[in-house]
Amino acid sequence: GIILFSYLPQFFDSGEFHFFQSGFSKKINTKNPIIRDLISTKHNDEILIELKLADSLLRLNDVESNLEAITIADILINEDSTQGDFYSLRGQAYYQKAELQNNSEPLIDKAMADLQHSTTLNNINRDYLAKAYMGISDIYLLMNNLSKADSAIKKALRANNRVAGVRNKLKTIIKLKLQ
Predict the structure, then answer these.
(1) What is 49-71 written as a DSSP string?
(2) Most CB atoms within 10 A, among 32, 97, 111, 163?
(3) What φ, ψ does residue 8 adopt, rounded to 5°?
(4) What is the pLDDT of residues 167-177, one digit of tens each?
């Protein structure tokens, strides 16, 4: 006991706290392959305001608001092109623009490129990761690729099953699979 107590101060100074992490806790961290390697960015207040503004503009679902959301996403990407959240946002906006223009194929391609790129970056936040996979699922549904749409929506659920609309999209896919 005396030997252990004499090494404890050095142990805590070294920052090696993961030694105490239980096996159960380690299994939880590695259980979900979609989020286990994420290092979510803590954006500053200015960027959070821009992200919330762009999200609210997308909810309006009109041409002018969509253009403003794309502009915000482009500005954010220009400031930091390493952030998955920004590519997810722009991909969502491109997809919405494509829908507003009768499923414009060039815009769908841009949307898919940004959404897929965002899922490869480990600094994306769970909400934006889930929204990226939801968008990918929507595009696959549009292309009549039900198996890839199903796979993408399940990844969205694993990323964050509380994001608005994800459960309803899963129900839609299940309904199509059962027809």
Answers:
(1) HHHHHHHHHHHH-SHHHHHHHHH
(2) 111
(3) -60, -45
(4) 999 999 999 99
